[in-house]
TrEMBL record:
GO terms for cellular component: DNA-directed RNA polymerase complex. It catalyses: RNA(n) + a ribonucleoside 5'-triphosphate = RNA(n+1) + diphosphate. Residues 105-115 have a biased composition (Acidic residues). Gene3D superfamilies: 3.90.940.10. This is DNA-directed RNA polymerase subunit omega. The RNAP catalytic core consists of 2 alpha, 1 beta, 1 beta' and 1 omega subunit. When a sigma factor is associated with the core the holoenzyme is formed, which can initiate transcription. Residues 87-115 are annotated as: Disordered. InterPro entries: DNA-dir_RNA_pol_omega (IPR003716), Pol_omega/Rpo6/RPB6 (IPR006110), RPB6/omega-like_sf (IPR036161). GO terms for biological process: DNA-templated transcription. Keywords: DNA-directed RNA polymerase, Nucleotidyltransferase, Transcription, Transferase. HAMAP family: RNApol_bact_RpoZ.
Length: 115
């Protein structure tokens, strides 16, 4: 028997869902897709979110991360909200960088006028 089982993993992912609400995942396919995606991230160089045995394969590490509740599976609405937050943060940072560049340009202009 594989440990943790699909049922165990689905219970971990759906643990915050209230009774009567739709679960985050309801199929083994979702577990397979999420862990496969995370395994590809690990292969690409992302660091593990748990203390994994270096001998473990990336998929084993991904399953352990999911079981340890270190990996989240987002609903479409959560993905959209996260994308909007990231976009907003990037816009704010871009605005701050532009303001800093403008301040620097003004300071340089004032210094050159004083000379």
């Amino acid at each position: 028997m594989i440990h943790p089982s699909y049922v165990d993993l689905m219970n971990v992912v759906n643990k915050g869902v209230e009774e009567g609400e739709e679960p985050v995942i309801s199929s083994r396919y979702s577990i397979v897709m999420a862990t496969a995606k995370r395994a590809r991230q690990l292969v690409a160089g992302d660091e593990a979110m748990i203390n994994a045995d270096p001998k473990d394969k990336p998929l084993s590490t991904a399953v352990k991360e999911l079981y340890a509740d270190k990996l989240a599976i987002l609903t479409d609405e959560e993905k959209e909200a996260m994308a909007q937050l990231i976009e907003q943060k990037n816009a704010e940072e871009g605005g701050q960088k532009a303001a800093a560049a403008l301040d620097e340009a003004v300071n340089e202009t004032e210094e050159s006028e004083e000379e």
